Amino acid sequence: MSAPERVQKVLAAAGVASRRASEELIAAGRVTVDGVVVSLGAKADPYRQVITVDGERIHTNPLLVYFLLNKPAGVVTTVTDPQGRPTVMDLAPANPRVYPVGRLDRDTEGVLLLTNDGELANRLTHPRYEIEKTYVAQIRGPLKRHAVRALLDGVELEDGPARARSVRELGSTADRTLVELVLAEGRKREVRRMLAAVEVPLERLARVKIGPLALGDIGSGKLRPLTGAEVSALYAAVGLGAQVGATADGDHAADRDGASA
After folding, report:
1. pLDDT band at 258 (very low <50, low <70, confident <90, very high)
2. Is 105 a catalytic residue?
3. Is residue 67 a contact partner of residue 114, using CB atoms and an 8 Å limit?
4. Which CATH architecture best describes the domain 66-127+213-254?
């Protein structure tokens, strides 16, 4: 017999949304267990009770899939957008339903993980796991030494101090420089705000790595399924054991319309 679990954990494990987003669904009164609206803190047995979100029953032990997307600039990292702008969901396969892990702001390009693995998504975005994110910034002019020192020592932002774990120059021309920055946080527009705080004129920004997951040579707007080794590496990075029932290679999904659009 299975043991009851917190409802938000059940929703996350079923790929409905991240743990925190699932808590918001519960707080909004959109989740029922056996027909009764539940509140935060409620528990349920996903194998013996009927759990619904907005009236639709959720299914436990989903087929887990994982995709790496090279998000283009101009695309927002949301499931829907009230302003009608293109979202990352327009680039994702329709089935099984996946969700973006964390966010990249509209003008930032690069690595974005899409999955229905709620527990992995929760850990990858939770600050306690300090998953490193690597960015490449194109700036105008040279990278000045005092700016590097300030970024490494930490700069004060409106939501608290922020610090880069490493900063290094990748190359330069007469009027532009490429800079690699590594952070272990994921606050909204954090890299952009940090560069602005030290008066570094940013022209273009791309995230090229999340933990062990690197962008590689995938084209802008394209996605590909993760390999089994990549999924295992992500699990290891957040302290989880081997995934159960996961399909890391995603062969079943890669052939669907939109899987590489």
Report:
1. very low
2. yes
3. yes
4. 2-Layer Sandwich (3.30)
Q: Which of 105, 107, 117, 257 is catalytic?
A: 105
- For the entire predicted model, the pTM comes to 0.73
Residue partners of 196: CB distance under 8 A and separation at least 6:
202
Pairing of strands 202-210, 133-140: antiparallel
pLDDT of 85-125, one tens digit each? 999 999 998 887 888 999 899 999 999 999 988 888 888 98
16, 29, 79, 259 from 82: Cα distances, Å: 20, 22, 10, 24
Q: What is the CATH number of domain 138-200?
A: 3.30.70.1560
Spatial distance between the Cα atoms of 58 and 258, rounded to a whole number of angstroms: 24
Placement of tokens 């899409």 in the chain: 114
CB 44 within 8 A of CB 33: yes
CB atoms within 10 A of CB 140: 11
Report the Cα–Cα distance between both ends of the chain, in Å, rounded. Answer: 43
